[in-house]
Specification:
Largest sheet: 5 strands, antiparallel
Number of helices: 16
Distance between the termini: 57 Å
Oligomer: single chain
Helix content: 25-40%
Length: 530
């Protein structure tokens, strides 16, 4: 819409039709989205609200915060962090610089409740443009400099220092439903007491945040303002706080015995809760058919067989049920309505806006139902960006791609059940994509072709000695008989790097596929030795 419109059934349907064919496929670009939103002309009669839904997995956090601070104008930002391990630094920072409120929606949180809270806040804000007049009281270093608007019931919190004890009055001002409002309060600044109060620490944290905000871009580019940096470091050290320059990263090293040799390796850190490996480290976990085609930017998909035996690919909800999975930067979600396969040879496309950004096609009439007899399609048929009709519900589906493969790695019962319906060679291919690091794929064949007496020492390839390779095995769980089953496969345990989570050992290269068959094995990869 070029401007705000009433939320009538017609306009709501038009908005939903616009959103229906859109699909997230990673590549979070918050800065571009913020720039686009902030360049939309203001309506002088309304307070503009910008809502971001993201996990915040980006590398230019401070550049984004700097841009919002410099260009926000009278706009309010309401970021919603989606997932169990979101980038809270960025989400909270966007709310602070955008004078809004942050909301966090975990995988266990009801999305409807979060949306309702957001609506209540923006529909009837309590107090806007809040200011505090200290009436010449002896105060200094009061933070935040820009007091957030009050969008829901709660206190206005400011943190500062006073230079001497005393009493007086302060006046709080703002706009209440568009009209000036003020209230005068009595305050008492007692003599300082060393009673272990945390107020000083809270003030110091707020001061560090204020100093950081003065030089977001310098810090982002590695050229911080020396004076600001020194003030941050001094404050952090004095009050024992972590900051951009006083934090630490703990890297655990372990010396292990592998084949009689002492080796040192970094113990890897487990993925954040609610985040899939393939959602962060690229599209390694695409299924067999997806490898044969260019599928960049087309979102979550699956493949299956129609009632008349034709192979097809689709996006969104697997007919007959929904499947959880990852999207965007890698957080959980649900598929949408699947898109219909396009005619053979058609190229996937989306119309471009004047800025070159992808946009949805214009809303059209509701799609017609798919006929019961779906015509045969070749495996390489690309997807259509048209609004999706329903698929034949009698279709027998194979395993889902991308998100479903993540389900296989995590031992999801529904994903494993669909996996069992595949042909053996397809099933093994999906397991390799889901659980096996790229460096280990095809290693047995490589040893057979290029190895000498079972040994292979080749740049860029894990070293193989006597047909055995060193691996670290990530686990979803450790059943009571797990070690016995691993031993039966010839896995020799060298060390338990993380109890019930991560094992280090060696295994024959021709047994890697059998290792992937264990449902409680999440991922197999080469160790990172020093």
């Amino acid at each position: 819409f070029p401007r705000p419109v009433p939320a009538t059934p017609v306009t709501i349907k038009k908005a939903l039709d616009y959103l229906a064919p859109l699909a997230g496929a990673g590549g979070t670009d918050i800065l571009k989205a913020a720039d686009y939103a902030l360049k939309i002309p203001d309506d002088p009669n309304r307070l503009r609200i910008i809502c971001f839904l993201t996990d915040g997995y980006v590398g230019n956090d401070m550049q984004i915060l700097d841009y919002i601070k410099k260009h926000r104008g009278d706009v309010r930002f309401f970021p919603m962090g989606m997932g169990n391990s979101v980038n809270r630094f960025l989400i909270d920072g966007m709310a602070r610089e955008g004078r809004g409120t942050a909301e966090f929606v975990t995988l266990e949180t009801a999305g409807e409740a979060a949306a309702a809270r957001f609506y209540r806040r923006v529909a009837d804000p309590l107090l806007l443009d809040v200011e505090v007049d200290w009436n010449d009281l002896p105060v200094e270093d009061v933070f935040p400099k820009h007091i957030p608007d009050v969008f829901s019931a709660g206190p206005i919190i400011v943190k500062g220092r006073y230079t001497r004890p005393g009493r007086g009055q302060i006046t709080v001002r703002g706009l209440l439903r568009g009209k000036p409002w003020s209230q005068t309060l009595a305050v008492d600044f007692p003599a300082a007491k060393s009673d272990g109060s945390a107020i000083a620490t809270l003030w110091a944290r707020e001061r560090i945040e204020d100093l950081q905000a003065q030089d977001w871009l310098g810090t982002q580019t590695g050229n911080p303002d020396p004076e600001i940096k020194n003030r941050i470091v001094n404050t952090a050290l004095e009050y024992r706080l972590m900051s951009q320059w006083t934090s630490f990263v703990a890297v655990e090293e372990r010396v292990v015995n592998v084949g009689g040799k002492q080796r040192t390796l970094d113990v890897p850190v487990e993925m954040p809760d609610g985040v899939a490996y393939d959602g962060i480290f690229g599209r390694e976990a695409e299924v067999l058919l997806e490898q044969r085609q260019e599928q960049r930017g087309l979102g979550l998909s699956y493949y299956g067989v129609t009632a008349n035996g034709a192979l097809f690919r689709g996006r969104g909800t697997v007919p007959g049920g929904t499947a959880g999975g990852v999207g965007g930067g890698g957080f959980g979600g649900r598929f949408r309505t699947p898109a219909a396969p396009a005619p053979a040879g058609a190229a996937p496309s989306r119309p471009k806006s004047s800025t070159g950004a992808a946009k949805a096609p214009a809303a059209g009439p509701p799609p017609k139902p798919v006929a019961q007899a779906t015509p045969a399609l070749p495996p390489a048929a690309p997807l259509s960006s048209a609004v999706a009709p329903s698929l034949d519900t009698t279709a027998t589906l194979g395993v889902g791609s991308y998100a479903d493969v993540s389900g296989v790695a995590l031992g999801d019962e529904a994903s494993l059940k669909r996996l069992e319906s595949l042909k053996p060679e397809e099933r093994q291919a999906v397991l390799r994509e889901a659980k096996l690091a790229p460096a280990l794929r095809g290693l047995a064949d490589l040893v057979a072709k290029e190895g000498k007496n079972g040994d292979l020492d080749k740049p860029g390839v894990p070293k193989v000695e006597k047909n055995r390779v060193e691996v670290q095995v990530w686990l979803n769980s450790l059943p009571a008989d797990a070690l016995e089953k691993l031993k039966a496969l010839g896995f020799e345990l060298s060390a338990t790097l993380t109890p019930n989570k991560l094992l280090l050992g060696t295994i024959a290269v021709d047994k890697l596929d059998a290792l992937l068959d264990l449902p409680w094995v999440r991922r197999v990869e080469p160790p990172r030795f020093k």
